[in-house]
Amino acid sequence: MTRKMKTRFAGMASLCLVAGVPGGASATEGYFAMAYGTAQRGVAGAGIAYSQDAMSAAINPASVATVGRELTLGTEIFSPRREFTVSGGAPGLLPDGTTKSGRDWFIVPNAAFNMPLANGAVVNFAAYGNGGMNTAYRDVPNANCGPASGVFCGGTAGVDLTQLFLSVGYAQKTGAFSWGVAPTVAVQRFSAKGLAPFGALSVDPANLSDRGHDMSYGIGLRAGFQYEINPQLTIGVSGQTKFKMSKFKKYAGLFENGGEFDIPATLGVGLAFKPRSDITLMLDYQRIFYSNVPAVANSTTATSPFGSKGGSGFGWDDVDVVRIGAEWQQSPDMTWRAGYAHATNPVGPEDVTFNVLAPGIVKHHLSFGGTKRLNDRDKLDFSLAYVVPQTVSGPEMTPGGPTGNTVKLRMEQFSVSVGWTRKF
Predict the structure, then answer these.
(1) Do residues 167 and 125 lie in contact, with contact meaning Cβ atoms separated by under 8 Å?
(2) Signal peptide position in this chain (predicted)?
């Protein structure tokens, strides 16, 4: 990598870190983002078999093989609305009635640069993030706590997970076949508050809660290909390996096996069909393998203590996502997009109690957007996304068993994105 290339990559990484990628949350499938760039969000994250801009590498590293020299910058203003309601009137753990999480607004930047090489291949630099495990509950009154207060009788409560990805990709097209690989560095930041009352259920209660932010690092590989079956139809496949991350030492008493919190693998396949030259239709399927990360997948009612090997987690299942997108180039200067994504809910009724901390339960994503060409070099992208309110109800569970109460989780999301792309 040349000094100039290193400088550009470091600049993009610094921009995203200073801005706080991803700011704690983004329109989500579990805690994976629906999409990572403005144009992608316009089609609900579809595009495994389609190339839009330099940020397409975040969906499929092969997508940027034909993009050319290009810089893409974007920002999403994201608002998740999280709450839970407890009904039944029996003594339990959580406060009765409806409790809403604070921190409803986040800024989520992204950046990518595509650089062609002399051999016809390209190198792509990208910075983007995940983050849907975020809640912030006030120190609310709780009749179950005696003289104490708070959602879990530990005062202000909540968690904050941020994941930043920095990738350097290589992509090339030969005939009808494009392929790409992207070694990727991942950086995680996490904090938890208000969980101290669970200390008796942890192997390391001193490192369970209220330890401030902790950092975790790891590396993984993203790869994919696209094949043009004919001028109208392209197929694409993409995926990422599981990221083996360093442990959150400050939360060795919360996460399984002394603070392990790896990033799950994904696999997806997509089709892009052009019924005519100005219209592209996209269909993607993706699976996110949360079940291979014990800290996320282990049951919230596991018999092993928090922080132990096989200890309690969030009880999340794998998530399957189907995305449908449409892009219409109305004129050389104006393109319109729309999309829909359906994600399965990772949280079952048996795990709702602990998931008031991480209610990543949304299913239905609707999106709309477009691109306005400003001149021969510059484009302005925009998109709107709405995630339909989703609820999941189940029995309130405590270390002593079910209380007879019902806990209902609720999540709703809104986002507005703008982006700028320059061709060189």
Answers:
(1) yes
(2) 1-27
- Nearest-angstrom CA–CA distance, 50 and 270: 8
Helix (H) or strand (E) holding 393: strand 378-398
- Tokens of residue 198, six digits: 């669970």
- Answer with the residue of higher pLDDT: 108 or 279: 279
Token digits of residue 183: 């070694």
Separation CA 183–CA 262 (nearest Å): 16
CB 31 within 8 A of CB 325: no
How many whole angstroms separate alpha carbon 121 and alpha carbon 101? 47
pLDDT tens by residue, 242-273: 999 999 999 999 999 999 999 999 999 999 99
Q: What domains can you pick out in the chain, each with its CATH number?
A: 3-423 (2.40.160.60)
The alpha carbon torsion through 11, 167, 185, 285 (nearest 10 deg) reads 140
Backbone phi, psi, residue 7, to 5°: -65, -45
Position with higher pLDDT, 19 vs 264: 264
Record the tokens describing residue 319, joined without a space: 């998530």
Report the candidate in 107, 94, 100 with the shortest Cα–Cα distance to residue 19: 107
Distance CA 231, CA 275 (A): 10
Q: Can you read off the two tokens belonging to residue 259?
A: 């603070």
Phi, psi of 96 (to 5 degrees): -65, 155
Using DSSP's 3-state secondary structure scheme, residue 19 falls into helix
Tens of pLDDT along 363-382? 999 999 999 999 999 999 99
Judge whether 183 and 154 are in contact, CB under 8 Å.
Answer: no
Cα–Cα distance for residue pair 208/13, rounded to 1 Å: 30
CB 245 within 8 A of CB 200: no
185 is written with which tokens?
Answer: 């560095």
**Phi, psi (5° rounding) for residue 184?**
-135, 130
What number of other Cβ atoms are within 10 A of residue 217's Cβ? 11
Residue 170, C-beta contacts closer than 8 angstroms, at least 6 positions apart:
61, 121, 122, 123, 124, 180, 181, 182
| CB of 152 closer than 8 Å to CB of 138 | no
Prediction pTM value: 0.91
**Residue closest to 278 by CA, chosen among 353, 225, 332, 350:** 332
Tell me the H-state helices in 279-319. Answer: 294-297
CA-based nearest residue to 420, from 61, 33, 109: 109
Phi-psi region of 73 (alpha: psi -120 to 50; beta: other; left: phi over 0): beta
